[in-house]
Design a protein that fits this description.
With 529 residues, the chain is an alpha+beta fold. The protein is built from twelve helices and 17 strands. The longest helix is centred in the middle third of the chain and has 79 residues.
Length: 529
Amino acid sequence: MIWRTRLLAGLVALLMAAMLVAAVFLSIHYERNEREEALVRATQAAVGGIRAHLRASEQSLGALASDLAGAGGDGNAFRQVAAQLLANDQALLRVELRAEDGRLLEAVDAPAPRPRLDARQREQLGFESTLALRSAVGFERPLYSRSYYVRMSETSGFEIVDLAVPVASQPPRALVASYSMPLLLDRMLPTAILQSHQVYLTEPDGTFVARSSSGLHGAGVYTAAAPLELPGMSLQLRTNSVQGEPKLIPNLLTAMLVVVTLALAGAAALLWRDWRLRANAERALRNQQEKLQANARMALLGEVASVLSHELNQPLAAITSYTTACENLLENEAPADASTLRAALARIRGQSDRAGQVIRSVQDFVRRRQIDCRELAIGDLLRSAEPLIRLQASKNGGRVEWRIDDDAVVFGDRTMLEQVLLNLTRNGFEAMDGMPRPQRLLEIEAARIFDDGRRAVAVEVRDRGNGIASEHEGQLFNAFYTTKPDGLGIGLSLCRTVIEAHGGKLRHRRREGGGAVFRFELPVEESKA
């Protein structure tokens, strides 16, 4: 009987222990689910709040854009309304009025104590902001840029995002509003979330963008993420609760004491480990940034050297041809005609000037200076490049046909546009190298057109070569992509950059009957502002 009693008591004790363990497990599981669901709902609500706030800002900027379109460019009205927007929106750092090409027309900064963006850095927009501005003007709707880092000092900076809102005026303009991503989190999220969670924004692939200034570090137990989808930008709002694993139920005081002690020891160990990892990561990041900056400088030097080598080939080749002609004239027994020599020397001087203009143009591109736009008759532009084109034709055994509208006028940089034309004609002749001589005909046509209600001038260069293979068409205008064994892959990329800098388009299509057609269109401006 005694052993049976002891066995029963042991079974009861085991059963009670099992029930206790099960109760603790169920309690922990229930608490975990409740906290996770609450965090998911709070994160989604926070995203909704940010989205609603940005929509309201879009509407306010849209109203300002409508006023500016009606006022025809009243700077006082812009500054007054922009100052009011900055006062009402604590995450907004700067409101700018820019031309379609990105030139800064007007700007208003947020009042202190918000950080002030460097006005010199804002003179020229970066790639992401320029893309958003031009897309907003082109699609006639507000668009956000991708976030980018702004350095405030040698040791500090933060991510910002630009909102571009088109202004329906002639010429087209756009409002650009710059938001601080950390301030957007600090000012737009509920205080309850900021005081108990680590909150940060990332790219969809997990790349870190910005965090709140609360300085909290999440425990990694309760996390949630919600997409923040905006026109032109996609981010993830991530929350990480500072709450750790659920503790044992209150009546298990001893168990709670043990768990709390272990949790504190583990947290201290994790904090120490995280601190070491973070210090090592920051040190490695600084080293990597220094290497990237050095590599970027070397890459820029290499690119500039490649562009100069590519663009100086034509004038230098022409100088060589004219010099050889002068030598041949002087070696003949009959005395050389002075007028012929003077003409050849004038051509040499012209090509030397052209080489200097090419160097200055490349320098202007590297320094991001404004294009020297002047009124140009398209016929004069093409005829000024005709001797070099004829020289290309003679070298490749080809012929040239011209169809030019002499009344067509554009505004542009003569040297840059001539270089585009010479690049396209050279590519055309090289594409016909393997064709029979009667078929080596390059056609150049310039005419006035109407494109989307705007007057423009279209120039087409058509060859009768083998055309562009379909697998190359998608990468045709990419920098450093070439199908030639000795090519650099920068000619067409540079051509597209020049044409787009003039507000135009460069396109390619297949020619019926074989060959390729390259067409660029330049807008016709009535006057220059």
